[in-house]
Amino acid sequence: MAINRRTFLKAAGLTTLAGVAGHAAMELLAPGALEAARPESVGRFPEELTAKRWAMLIDTKKFTTVQTYQRSIDACHVLHNVPHIPGDQEIKWLWTDSFKHVFPDQQHELVPDAIKNQPFLALCNHCDNPPCVRVCPTKATFKRDDGIVMMDMHRCIGCRYCMAGCPYGARSFNFWDPRPFIANIDPYYPTRMIGVVEKCTFCEDRLARGQIPACVEVSEGAMIFGDLDNQDSEVRRVLRERYSLRRKPSLGTKPHVFYLI
Amino acid sequence: MLEKALQGNKAYWGWIFTLLVAIGIGFGFYVVQLQQGLGVTGLNRDVSWGLYIGQLTYMVGIAASAVMLVLPYYLHNYKAFGKLVIFGEFLAVSAVIVCLLFVVVDLGQPQRLMNVVLHPTPNSVLFWDMVVLNGYLFLNIIIGWAVLHAVKKGVRPASWLKILIYVSIPWAVSIHTVTAFLYAGLPGRYFWHDSLLAASFLTGAFAAGPALLLLILMIVQKVSDLKIPKEAIQTLTKIITYAWAINLFMLLLKIFSAYYSQYPAKMATFDYLFGGVGGEQMMPWMWNFVFLSVVSLVLLVIPSTRNNPITMTIALVMVVFAGWIDKGLSLVIGGFIPNPFKVHTEYWPTIPEFFITVGVYAVGLLILTILYKVALAVQRENAS
Ligand code: SF4
Ligand code: SF4
């Protein structure tokens, strides 16, 4: 026998060690390259919608009135028990802002009035290279294999490093107990506790039950959701046909929310 | 040796009592914050870190500055610092404890603090900050205590201690470097995203830290039999002068690259801080910073004012205060203003936030007082 049990175990131990160290080095130098693996066994329904890489398109030509925006925002906020807290300690998952605020680097004096005065939807971009995941010290923020950037509110320590890290202002912090600020609590979705961070989750809870995100569902075609890695998907087809913008592309975060112009 | 902290005159106990009252008030407000949440602070959706994290940043620098005594004494055998090194190390101990407390009071869910240890996350700079801060704390506790024991017994410090001391020198640099990386590694935060940040953190610390130490030692000298050697003061003030000059130079470098390039995102925070664009809350502080920095630098550079006890003291107070405005206030707050939408949301600490901050500093001063008391008693016994 060329190799005895002892040397084999030694070698195995060493390679494991190298593996662990290699993993740590990888995470350090190319943070976010390794994604949190998804437990295969829990919470899976046969009707679950799956994709290699989820992405969202927002057709800015179809969002014309305040009502169209508000319908999507309300659908999201009511469904996810997002509290209405007035002032600058508010919580928001999906909201609108002006062109010059949503695309601060793309605005110039001669932007047509129609675009200048039109509100644009903003939400977490589920970035492919998300700084929020990179900085979180507890893995409470993590990226799933299908690209959804998730929050584990039971893991979050409320350090708010992810808020400093997100260059899109997409995260909110529960400065107060949110429950008194929710008009009608939806028993099918958990409410949050004080002192944790939250944000849009691409409705992963609905995807698991075979439904598309709530905002997309009520948008009457103004939002499209689908698999970016699938050549034949609707998102890919539309992106081939129309011009689209992403927010702050120069930062290298690779947002997966596209704005059709 | 700790029992030596239990002997003292009326003034000593009055000081301890004052600190305990401040700690009590701070703790009371902390309980309120625990129950109601960080909503009681002035923080908001846009400015998510404020006074607490600012103090962490400033005090990491104070802790790191101990190396300005340790390095000349142990590496260059500079004897004049002999008696003072222990005070530098004990200042580092209390400063690091203050830093860790500021992390805790800043958390939304402090009872989950151990998650950082239970789920170690090497891609997060905050994880490494925790590692280096705790490491530095233990290094300085062990070194300080063992050196003091050696003094008490009148023997030379053991050789294993030497190794720890040498380790502590780069370690001191690491704590401030890693803390700078907390900020410097974020995309889209242009005020922080700056490769000079760690270097300017260190120079600012090597000025403000020794300045604070000298001021504290001058008070200790008044109330005890400590004698600070004149040569030590002169060397320390020279260190402060060089570090301060380099620190201000680096600030000018940042201002140049922002304004000569006319890069809007780089100018935005300077516009806000110094020009009051989008809100004037920070502007008076920043111009005070400029005034204090320039006057203190002049006082320190001219040999006659640097060596005159009165003008020197004034300069030291100015450096400590200017350093505090820079790291404790404007760096953290300025980094968030304007926000990612180029909107200016301002922040100002609230009363609970203020008293919790005072309380945390009082804990640090209490620890510092006890450690210094022990160190003084041991040195006195040894001398007699
Ligand atoms: S938009 Fe912000 S919160 Fe969302 S994934 Fe990107 S960095 Fe993270
Ligand atoms: S606040 Fe929570 S989610 Fe954000 S970085 Fe800290 S632990 Fe992670």
Quick structural overview:
The complex is a heterodimer of chains A (261) and B (384). Chain A has helices at 5-29, 66-79, 99-102, 113-116, 131-135, 161-165, 204-208, 214-217, 234-241; strands spanning 54-59, 95-98, 119-122, 141-143, 149-151, 172-173, 197-198, 223-227, 244-245, 257-260.
Counting DSSP E segments of at least 2 residues, the number of strands of chain A comes to 10
* Alpha-carbon Rg of chain A, integer: 21 Å
Helix segment tally of chain B: 14
Greatest chain-chain interface? A-B, 52 and 45 residues
Helix coverage percent of chain B:
over 70%
Q: Are there runs of chain A of 5+ residues with pLDDT below 50, and where?
A: 5-9, 14-20, 32-41
Distance, first to last CA of chain A = 69 Å
- Enumerate the strands of the largest sheet of chain A in spatial order, edge to edge or round the barrel: 8-1-10-9
The oligomerization state is heterodimer
Count of runs of 4 or more consecutive helical residues of chain A? 9
Distance between the termini of chain B: 17 Å
State the major sheet of chain A: 4 strands, mixed
The secondary-structure element order of chain A is: HEHEHHEHEEHEEHHEHEE
Question: How is this structure best described in words?
Answer:
- The complex is a heterodimer of chains A (261) and B (384).
- Chain A has helices spanning 5-29, 66-79, 99-102, 113-116, 131-135, 161-165, 204-208, 214-217, 234-241, and strands at 54-59, 95-98, 119-122, 141-143, 149-151, 172-173, 197-198, 223-227, 244-245, 257-260.
- Chain A has 261 residues and is an alpha+beta fold.
- In chain A, the strands form four sheets. Chain A has a four-stranded mixed sheet with strand order 8-1-10-9. A two-stranded antiparallel ribbon of chain A has the order 2-3. A two-stranded antiparallel sheet of chain A has the order 4-5.
- Chain A is globular.
- The model of chain A is unreliable at 5-9, 14-20 and 32-41 (pLDDT under 50).
- By secondary structure, chain B is mainly α.
- Chain B is built from 14 helices and no strands.
- Chain B has helices at 10-36, 51-64, 67-75, 85-106, 115-118, 125-153, 159-184, 197-223, 230-261, 264-275, 283-301, 303-307, 309-336, 351-383.
- Chain B is globular, with a radius of gyration of 21 Å.
- The chains are: A alpha+beta (261), B mainly alpha (384).
